[in-house]
Design a protein that fits this description.
The chain has helices at about 5-20, 65-70, 80-100, 165-175, and strands at about 45, 55, 110, 120-130, 130-140, 150-155, 160, 180-185, 190, 195-210, 210-220, 230. The chain is α+β, with helices and mostly antiparallel strands. The strands form 3 sheets. Strands 1, 2, 8, 10, 11 and 12 form a 6-stranded mixed sheet that branches. Strand 11 (about 210-220) and strand 12 form a beta hairpin. The longest helix has 17 residues, at about 5-20.
């Protein structure tokens, strides 16, 4: 009969052998060969300063033309003066400039009404979200007293700009050029001088080669006619 110590040695030997013969899925079998993981191409080097706000798509909450028209009911019909017909248009144009909802005042004009005379100009004012927007209403040179149809133009003294509207236009403008669009952190709403840069910029990431991409910066500029552009 084998001694207890001999039996223990046999048992331990069995356990060791059993453990050594197990399959570790993380360890290659004997004789197997391994190959290093295939590395992809290196990411292109990016040059230029990245601006803080990433634009990933259209901006929600912008006013549609239907919403603008609904917010400012027009005035027309017998007995309605030329001034009363024009003032709602100034409110609509103010809302359209900002592109976002907000409290808007009734338009008022210097002297209480628009002066009807060839090339006469009258300053009228609309207050939108606390900002005063002045409009110059200029009567056409062909005006004659008693005309039922009056030709006129309107021009803002300054341009209302909003961050949401500009971010949306940046996305629409640059999306065909790049998959990366960014802008400065813009004020929520402000009045900008015409014919000048706003001091803010947007940018897109331009691919120059397989190994190089570069941020292209373009200033936000307000033209003399009050429209804005990039670059």
């Amino acid at each position: 009969m084998a001694s207890p110590s001999a039996f223990l040695r046999v048992l331990v030997g069995v356990v060791v052998v059993a453990a050594g013969g197990g399959c570790d899925p993380g360890t290659p079998e004997a004789g197997a060969t391994t190959s290093p993981a295939t590395a992809g191409p290196p990411s292109p080097a990016v040059f230029g300063r990245e601006r803080p706000v990433k634009i990933t798509g259209p901006q929600a909450g912008l006013l549609t033309q239907e919403q603008i028209e609904a917010a400012v009911p027009g005035t027309s019909g017998p007995g309605v003066s030329f001034t009363e017909q024009v003032l709602p248009e100034l409110q609509e144009k103010t809302l359209d400039m900002g592109g976002v909802p907000g409290k808007i005042s009734t338009a008022t004009c210097a002297g209480g009404k628009i002066k009807l005379a060839p090339m006469a100009g009258t300053w009228c004012t609309v207050v939108f979200r606390g900002l005063r927007v002045d409009w110059n209403v200029v009567i056409g040179s062909d005006y004659e007293s008693g005309d039922r149809v009056v030709h006129y133009t309107v021009h803002p003294r300054k341009r209302i700009l909003t961050a949401k509207l500009l971010y949306n236009h940046a996305w629409l403008y640059y999306r065909e050029m790049s998959d990366e669009v960014r802008c400065d952190k813009l004020p929520e709403i402000w009045l900008a001088d015409k014919g000048k840069s706003t001091g803010y910029s947007c940018q897109y990431l331009r691919t120059l080669s397989d190994t190089e991409r570069r941020w292209v910066d373009e200033e936000i500029f307000v033209r003399d006619d009050g429209e804005f552009r990039f670059g």
